[in-house]
Specification:
Blueprint lengths: L2 E6 L5 H14 L3 E6 L5 H6 L2 E9 L2 E2 L1 H14 L7 E8 L4 H13 L3 E2 L4 E4 L5 H5 L6 H20 L3
């Protein structure tokens, strides 16, 4: 059975909610593995047939923990996962474009195939208190995350990506 790997990092809960919703959507379509970035390994990447990467944007880039996942796994899988499909979801206080561009550049280095434009969820957190506060992603946005998971999962399961 085909496998979809969802790797995420979340400090205040927003990205975790998005990743869990995507996993819920994908589970009916494909074997789905949901892993926190600090738990994901190169072997997990090699076993999977497709990926969803979910991260917060911190200081206009990927969170440090998500970047550390990519740093740790990049070279061990380089040249071994080319052409596999991926999508990304970014939880951001503003536009999220910096993190999305950074993740896309990493995926380009792996020669992954983007099959969905980046989903960026803006929480509008602008003050230190709002940035550090636990996040609650709206239900309609989580429905969109489930739909993305279902679509990527179905595409991986059917081999259309």
């Amino acid at each position: 059975m085909a496998q979809l790997l969802i790797v995420y990092h979340s400090r205040t809960g927003g990205s975790a909610q998005m990743a869990q919703a995507a996993a819920e959507g994908a589970r009916g379509e494909v074997e789905t593995v949901l892993l926190a970035a600090d738990q994901a390994t190169p072997d997990d990447l090699l076993r999977a047939d497709g990926y969803i990467f979910v991260a917060p944007e911190n200081l206009a880039t990927l969170s440090g923990a998500m970047k550390e996942f990519f740093d740790r796994c990049f070279y061990p899988v380089l040249g071994r996962i080319e052409g596999r499909p991926y999508a990304q979801m970014i939880c951001a206080g503003t536009d999220g474009q910096g993190a999305a561009r950074q993740l896309a550049r990493i995926a380009t280095g792996w020669r992954l195939r983007e099959v969905q434009p980046a989903m960026i969820v803006c929480t509008h957190a602008q003050t230190p208190e709002a940035i550090l506060a636990p996040k609650a992603i709206p239900d309609d946005t989580l429905d969109d995350c489930r739909a993305l998971g279902q679509a990527i999962g179905a595409g991986v399961a059917m081999g259309i990506f």
